[in-house]
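Protein: TusE/DsrC/DsvC family sulfur relay protein
Species: Georgenia yuyongxinii
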Amino acid sequence: MPVIEINDKPVHVDEEGFLTEYDEWDEDLAEVLAQQIGIDLTDQHWKVVRFLREDYKSQGQTATTRRVNAVGGIHVKEQFALFPKKPGKKMSYVAGLPKPHGCV
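Structure follows.
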């Protein structure tokens, strides 16, 4: 896996730029990742990101938008408003997680 530097910190990423090491992520890194895709993180964004991180830790895979809706209680419409066009990819990218299964 390639190693790149983000925010003066080396991080392992896959070929699409998604982090591959759970423990390399922190909230400062999330801010930088969000800025890279044009998102200014609000409390509602953080709610999604924190849900994804906790869910990944217990489930071993990145939650889909459906799971974020059903288990996290964040409606799909809101996910699209917070992370426009491709919420699954963008949410997982900012959360420092692999792209969800089934996400193109």
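Remarks: The mean pLDDT is 93.
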